[in-house]
Amino acid sequence: MKKTVVTLLIGLALSACGKVPKGYNGKFADAATGAKLTLEGSQGSLVTTDGRTLEAKAKALDFEALVKGEPGIYLRALADDEKKSEVFWIFPKQETRKQEFDFVWVEAEVLYSRFTAEKDEKVQQFKMIHCTDGMILLDLPSRSWNGGCPDTALEYDFVRRE
Amino acid sequence: MKRKNGALVVLISITSTVLNPALADSVSGTIRPGPRPQPTATASPSPTPTAAPAPIRPGPRPTPTATATPAPIPTTEPTVIPTADPGTEPVTVDTSTATQEGEADGREDGAQEGRERGAQDGLLEGEREGRRDGFERCAQEERQRNYDTGYAEGYRSGQYDGQREGSERGEADGGAQGQIDGHHDGLARADRDADRDASPVGRARGIEEADRSDATDRGTRDGAVAGDRQARERAIEIDYARAREELRNERFAEPIRFQDEFSQRSSKAAPKATSLLKSLFQLSSRGDFTNITPERDGGSADFRYFNPSRNYSTPEENGAYLQAYRSGYLNGFRIEYASTFRFTYREGHEEGAKRGCQDARRRDYREHFNRGFEVGRLDGYRQAYDRAYEEARRSEYNRAFPRASELAYRDAYQPAYDRHFEESRAQGYRERVSELYGAAFERSRQATFEARYPGYAVQETERGRKDEARDFVERPVRLLAAEVLETIDNGLMEPGEALRLRLTLRNFANQAINGKDLRIKIEALDLGSAVITEGEAVLVRNLREQSSTAVTNALEFRMNESAVRRASRFRVTAQYQGRGIGELSLEVNTRFQVEVALAGELTVKDGLPTTLKIRLTNQSLRATDAALKLRLATDSGQLEVPHPEQLTGGMEPGESREIEFTVIGRTAQDSIRIPLAVSVNGAGRRVGLLDATDEVPVVNDYRVTLTGAAGRLTEAGVARMTYRVRNLGSRLLYKGLQLRITVKNTANTENFAVIGPATQYLMPLEKGEQATFLVPVLVKAANESCTLELELQEDGHTVAIHQVNFQKTLNLSERI
Fold first, then answer.
1. Quick check: B760 and A137 CB within 8 A?
2. Which residues of B are less than 8 Å from A134 in CB distance?
3. How many independent structural domains does chain A possess?
4. What are phi and psi of B4, to 5 degrees?
5. What is the CATH number of domain B475-589?
């Protein structure tokens, strides 16, 4: 199994200090694809269905870093529900970065999920989508950005193993 | 010791003795152990002269003050005489005799003091308390006695006044009421008696007068006139009408010599139905004496008789004697004091009570008497007044009533008699006259009718036949029937279809009737239901003699589309030489050949196509044209119809089919009210129409809204479009969204370039959530107009299409 250890400043932190909430610590697996996810404090690693291993550390990501195409994490609380947050890590492909008229877009490997903030009790199951051909778009004047995956993204249904 | 004033004498002597120790020594002649203590004076009040006793106010029972405890007599401790030989044991001395003797001596002396003091104190206190108790008791008795006395006197006084005043008032009231009631009674009796006496007489007079009147003659005359009129009217109503009908029937029963038929349009083909010149849309045109002898113990002895007189050889015995004497003294004092106190207290209390009572009885109790007097007066007054009033009232009433009644009767009888007489006379007259007149009238009427009617009947029969015959001469032709014929033979009266009449005319004459003398006419009775293309005409051919002729293709009219599904009324008339020869009513139900209706509920999606289903049904008896063309028209501002026209094949009679139209909503609202018109044309005319206005819901899983635009797509530069997308109905989880942006409806699409990737991605939105995103567009050169279209996909399916129109001279208009 090909193992690509990618030191990514990624993680699934849900707090400003970049730690995985206790409720999400543990080992999870997706039965359909065989992907395995391990979360521990500020560490995370994902073994993908094609055998790649993505290891990550939690680190806050800022807009400037995204503009530069640096990989990182981003946490965004939902406007209508402060207890929930969008969590995704982004691994931009620097060679695809383009910028025109203060608008930047770059292809990226994208993982996306939603966590409940500060959840202490053990979470047994949660979903995540994953694509290697996602896209991130940033508007420099308004400092806003968006991103996502095409309809071919994988959908993981992670169930706790430990 | 005297009892009454003895206590005072004793007190004085004791006091003197105590204050003069020398005198005490000379009395007793004994050796005293020490200076005698000075007893303190008791707290009794000083006696006051009895001539004017001070009022003793009842109060709480005073507690007798105890005699002040004198200072204790110092005792001499027996000294112990040491023996010459300190080395020997002390000797035990028997002190029992000394003790006994000391006890006895002390008791006797103490008892004496107890007797003296007990007597004094008992008498004093008994008298004081007895006086107070006696005063209270007697004062209460006096108060009650005075009150009772006052009450009795007041009651008598009140009775007297009540009796007097009650009688006066009762007399006045009884007299007045008796007067009034008696007067009314007299009037009523007078009226009743007068009526009884006068009415029969008056009535008889009235009847007599009526018998002498001309009621019978008048009734006979009037009856004859009425009988004659009724006979004539009856003859007209029955015989004349019957004669005419019989003649008419005879004429109609005559054999028809010729049965003819001709067409008013014999050389013309059935006209082609033309389309109505109407607009396609028909925009349609809601939360207490206690124990008299209290127990006393006298407090402490003052040892006035303390005198231990014995002397013994040993100090032990002396000591024992003294100690026992003291103890015996106190015991003797206590016992005798209590006993003596009780006895003298009783005597003193009795005496004191007498004096207290005397004091109480000497006081003034007028206030109580007055209070009793007032209460008694009120009670006596009330009791006497009511009885006296009622007696006086009844008596005076009984006296005044009959007198007043008699007076009133006397004055009222005659006028009442006259009035009743006149009333009954008039009534008797009226009734009798009516009876006489009515009987005479009816006899005369009946007789006249029976006599005259046969003649009138013959006369009117003749006249009726003559008139009917003349009528047939004047109107030899009659319109018998009319029916509507369609020109498109399919069993329906369609709007726009030329409709004509088939009339049946009968010529009763023995000669032909010139067609030009016959005019036929049709009128629509319901406004706007039809267009009369030929409302009036003369016959194109003559009618042969004694013929029945069917005239076809007569006149012409076309039903309007507004008359579809309603019954429309018409009136058909015919005239011969200006005289009406018939009037008939027709009813026409108009229907399209093809019924058009919506099939199912219509829903619309903003920016996305949905299907509008139309059901067609051929409700005629003929197949439709081989090709039917449908056209859907609506408000294009809210609902886009990409292909408003469709073709379908012909339909057999009774056949139904559904036709689908694709429609795309173009609105930001949640529902739209849109007019829908579906017309079906075939064979060159409209054969079906649906005209409706519906409230249609707009249902989208996602809605996209333009929330901001920096720049314009009609001007060169970069325009940044900010959108908001909301998930309204999609329940798919973790499905990302994809955006495709294109520019359309422009002369040169190369003039525009969407900055960024051709497809943008958005993170998943759960139901109810929304997100904003930005779309920058590079406009290379100014232009007149264009449309920016955004297609939103979820999981590969299009879920919304948003369009923004830009025009150079107008403001931004959004079309979603």
1. yes
2. 761
3. 1
4. -75, -60
5. 2.60.40.10
